[in-house]
Amino acid sequence: MARIVLGLGASHTPLLTLTSEQWSHRAAVDYANPRLNLSDGRWLSYEALLAEVGPRHEAVVTPEVLDEKARLCEAALQRLGDELQAAQPDVVVIVGDDQSELFGPANQPVIAVYHGAEIVTHDKFGRESTPQWMRDMGRGYLMDHVHRVPGCPEFALDVIGSLVEQNIDVATVASVDDPQKAGFGHAYGFIIKRVMRERPIPVLPIMLNTYYPPNVPTAARVVQMGRALAKAIADSPRELRVAVVASGGLSHFVVDEQLDRGLIKAFVERDLDALARLPRGALNSGSSEILNWVMTAGAVSELPVRWHEYYPLYRTPAGTGVGAAFVAWRDGA
Fold first, then answer.
1. Secondary structure tally for the chain: helices H, strands E
2. CATH T-level assignment (fold) for domain 3-329
3. What does the alpha-carbon distance between residue 156 and residue 151 come to, in Å, rounded to a whole number?
């Protein structure tokens, strides 16, 4: 039977595709954002956030600090890549969220599994009219032009069948018809490029709707989905070594260190009950990608966390940015 040999989690923020000098472009987006999400469920403009908390992170948005954090994140990504290479998986399951790259308002499933022969990326950031910094970001996401990565259709069908038998109402996707209109996006391309290092390992994409109400699943339901995914992998009769990778998160676009560190503590302690209790208010906008980690934690709960890193990547004085996390679950020392 197939077995999970490795779990990984990696933030996929644009900051990890750009130089630290280019982080100012994302800060500019924050300054103009009228709906920055707080973990208590509120939404504030940058001006309102600054008025509430003050410029408390002004000392850590200097070029020197940003450059050091970029270096630390790069080292963590290298370590994740080394972990994946050492595990030698036959298949990589990527748990991510689609952000109007493959799906849209006309079709937005709670959870979908792709069973096509090729993973085909959207080229939306490679257009001539796109600003240079976004084109740089697109290269980091494999969205600079159309990339094709092997899928694993037979194994995917095994997983889909088991999930249905476990009462998980999973949608399915069999192909990408026109990648210049819709295709796989940053949650998948980033992991393939930066963690898998573009090695031709078959990928099984799982797509959670974390971003778009009204059908975003609860954290408790996502824990159940993760446990069901573990069983679905084990139910497959194929002799496969499987890695499960969470893509995205943690808190953003207002960094919440307390929330993020609590999540990592729950991963280390295998406390799925704590993850299931996460309130909806803490899972809005970018922070909703925490659900990808919750599902992965449910899937790899038999494996211990062997190492983790966390860096709050502040990019404005009021504390907008990303809580960047990197985690590895595996057996052994």
1. 10, 12
2. Protocatechuate 4,5-dioxygenase; Chain B (3.40.830)
3. 9
Q: What is the pLDDT of residues 227-260, one digit of tens each?
A: 999 999 999 999 999 999 999 999 999 999 999 9
Find the Cα–Cα–Cα–Cα dihedral 28, 29, 35, 40, rounded to 10°: -80
At 107, is the secondary structure helix, strand, or coil?
A: strand
Written as one string, the DSSP assignment of 238-305 is S--EEEEEEES-SS-SB--HHHHHHHHHHHHHT-HHHHHT--GGGSSGGGGGHHHHHHHHHHTTTSPE
Tell me the C-alpha distance between 314 and 296, whole Å: 26
- What is the pTM (predicted TM-score) of this model? 0.97
**Rounded to an integer, what distance in angstroms lies between the CA atom of residue 55 and that of residue 60?**
10
151 has which bridge partners?
203
Q: Residue 15 corresponds to which tokens in the numbers above? A: 């900051």
Structure tokens that stand for 278 in this block: 């996460």
Q: SS3 breakdown of the chain: % helix, strand, coil, rounded to 5?
A: 40, 20, 35
Distance from C-alpha of 263 to C-alpha of 269, rounded to nearest angstrom: 10
- Give the start-to-end residue ranges of the domains of the chain: 3-329
The CA distance from 62 to 233, in Å, is: 46
Indicate the residue type of 232: A
